[in-house]
From TrEMBL:
Pfam family, one: Acetyltransf_1
InterPro entries: Acyl_CoA_acyltransferase (IPR016181), GNAT_dom (IPR000182)
Entry's Gene Ontology molecular function annotations: acyltransferase activity, transferring groups other than amino-acyl groups
PROSITE patterns: GNAT (PS51186)
Sequence ranges assigned to domain N-acetyltransferase in this UniProt record: 20-166
The name this protein goes by in its record: GNAT family N-acetyltransferase
Length: 180
């Protein structure tokens, strides 16, 4: 199974928008949000990913098929922040077989610098996923905190990627374990 990240071209923004609706539907379980009267949750920063240089939208592909996305930006709580995973979504069919893990690791390898990851306090599966993935990537050299943040409730992880590689593709074996 070949897992890779592909920068989302502007022409494919409608595809990303539809996938964001699936993601926001999943998150509604934790954030108690409802769709608007048109049946959409909406993602107010979508257009910014093609107009602001510090935002980077990627499709997650498995064997050439779009199965999710990762949105990277430079917004967070850490003073020396270089990169942040704003959103990571993998379609349910592709979860727990290593796709999310491979996508996260590929995102980390795409840019070097100081990273920050956040997730909602009630999203236990995401908290387990990020702790495990960041721990694996950093060999335990990360910080986790959740106190002292004015408008955020949930864990924040920070770490530094000193590597200067620019690579956004990983291949996972067909025997990938139950990681997501």
């Amino acid at each position: 199974m070949k897992i890779e990240l592909q920068l989302v071209p502007f022409e494919e923004k409608p595809v990303l928008k539809r996938m964001l609706e699936l993601y926001l539907y999943d998150l509604s379980e934790f954030e108690s949000t409802d769709p608007n009267r048109c049946g959409e949750f909406g993602y107010r920063y979508l257009d910014h990913y093609w107009t602001e240089s510090e935002r980077h939208p990627y499709f997650v592909k498995v064997d050439g098929k779009n199965v999710g996305f990762v949105l990277l930006n430079r917004f967070g709580y850490s003073e020396s922040l270089d990169h942040s995973v704003a959103e990571l979504f993998i379609m349910r069919k592709y979860r727990k077989i290593g796709v999310g893990r491979s996508a996260a690791l590929a995102a980390f390898e795409t840019f070097h610098g100081f990273w920050e990851i956040r997730t909602h306090e009630k999203n236990e599966p995401a908290k387990r996923f990020w702790r495990r993935t960041i721990d694996e990537y950093t060999n335990g050299a990360f910080t986790e905190f959740s106190d002292g943040l004015k408008d955020w409730k949930g864990p924040v992880w920070t770490f530094e990627n000193k590597k200067s590689q620019t690579k956004a593709a990983l291949t996972a074996p067909d025997t990938a374990g139950p990681k997501s």
